[in-house]
Amino acid sequence: MSLPIRILVLALISKIPQLGECSEVFHIDKHKYLAKHVLETKQADSELECGMHCVKVGSCASVNYKTSGIGKGLCELNTKTLPEVSDGDGIIHDSEFTHLYVMEKVFPEKSPLNNRKHATDVIVLITDGKPQGTNTVEEDAIANAKILKDKGVLIIGVGVGRNIEEPKFWKILQDIASPGQAIRVKFNKFRSIKDTLVKSSCQPYPFAPAQQCDCPGFEAAPVYLKPGETTTTLSWKRPDPVCPSGSVQILDFTWHPLLRSPATFGAGKHSIDYKFYLSENQQMNCTVLFDVRVCECPQEDLEAVHVKPGDTKVDLEWKVPVPSCLNCPSPLTSQSLSVGKHSMAYKYSVADKFNVTCQVNVEVKGTLCNGHGYNQVTQDCCCGVIHGKRAGYACCGPNHYNISTHQCCNGDNIRNIKEDCLTF
User: Which PROSITE patterns match (predicted)?
Assistant: First the structure.
């Protein structure tokens, strides 16, 4: 194939220059700022773009890029680099800046093959593990790769070595590479992918991601277990890679775990990983995901409450219990409850498949006198009439009397203690 291309083989995507404009690789120092050597200032949306400004200026040796705070995006072009100056010559620690300086010439300016604008930009990233560095190195690598891919750069990711089966490593490599351009191979089989790399690199310019194979989107919405059930049966289709018509063929595939649709799943997240062996010595991994959850009610048993003296009921407020499978807020409700045990039931229909009943239980405590609460320590209940408790007093029917001066006779009659009770 005679299409002109430029290929750069890299070990760390975080140091990728923007091919077609850049001829240098930068070293990155986080939280460093070089003062006193500013040549001119620019604005940039990323460290990568700031570095591109430096590449275009022959006398620029490094840049200060403001990553956060007021003035974020400021790009200062410097005539010197951190390694070239002493500590007292403008080196400042600043958490809002990143310092980048030219580390290595990749395409010397004297090369007649450098910076051919009609040539397709291709990056072959060969790595045996996920990026190492700062806490955000993985996010930075994926973000910088996206900038390049959005500009039409083809990134071919090649995972080699013993880490190639690690799910997280493979996911990062897929995110960095152009769609369908992530490959895994053992060290002793590395030569076997030569033809694949050459063919992938020689695609027509500009590179069109839509023409690459990709996995079909498959992530089912959460599936809820009916109360009392521990498993459910689910069905799925094999997630064959979606490729341009006739461009790639599926030669074979394996999957793990060895489940066939339909299958039974318990609560939890489940994945079925398929590995497809394609023509042109390519491989792709596609995954089917299920999220099985238990549909359960929140525990809404309320603490016991007491009826106040003189009241017949107590006003109580609580949150309506909503089952987890409905993903709805729990509104407040209230009710006046009398002494006793109460159970309020709330019935829900879940996706017209099954019903769930949630309950709120509460006990209202209190001693009643003719239906009204009263305090047995400070009050007496005399035949339904509440009297304040007084020393030396007792009930006589509905009345309260002084037992030292009066007596309670038949018929709940109170008479002086010196008098005889009447008999009928």
Answer: VWFA (PS50234)
Residue 203 pLDDT > 70, yes or no?
no
- If asked whether residues 137 and 165 sit together in one domain, one would say yes
Q: Is the pLDDT of residue 10 over 60?
A: no
Sign of the CA dihedral running 219, 224, 230, 232: negative
- Phi then psi for 397, rounded to 5 degrees? 65, -130
Same domain, 33 and 86: yes
Residue 212 domain-assigned (yes or no): no
Query: Does residue 279 lie within any of the structural domains?
Result: yes
Contact 242/216 with Cβ under 8 angstroms? yes
**How many angstroms separate the CA atoms of 417 and 365, rounded?**
39
- Identify whether residues 237 and 192 lie together within a single domain: no
Is 288 found in the same domain as 224?
yes
Q: Which residue has the higher pLDDT, 122 or 69?
A: 69
Question: Mean per-residue pLDDT for 126-143?
Answer: 78
Give the C-alpha separation, 43 to 287, whole Å: 41
Mean model confidence pLDDT for the chain: 78
CA dist 215 and 240 (Å) reads: 7
- On the question of pLDDT at 168 being above 90, the answer is no
14-65 confidence digits (pLDDT tens): 333 333 333 456 778 888 898 888 999 999 887 877 887 887 787 888 999 9
Residue 6 lies inside a defined structural domain of this protein: no
- Expressed as residue numbers, the domain containing 144 is 122-202
Q: Could you give the 3-state DSSP secondary structure of residue 192?
A: helix
d(CA 227, CA 229): 6
Tell me whether residue 259 is in a domain.
yes
Tell me: pLDDT of 249 over 80.
Answer: no
Position 116 pLDDT exceeds 60? no
Is-cis flag, bond preceding 331, omega within 30?
Answer: no
Residue with tokens 């003062």: 35
Element holding 168 (H helix, E strand): helix 167-176
Total domain count for the chain?
5
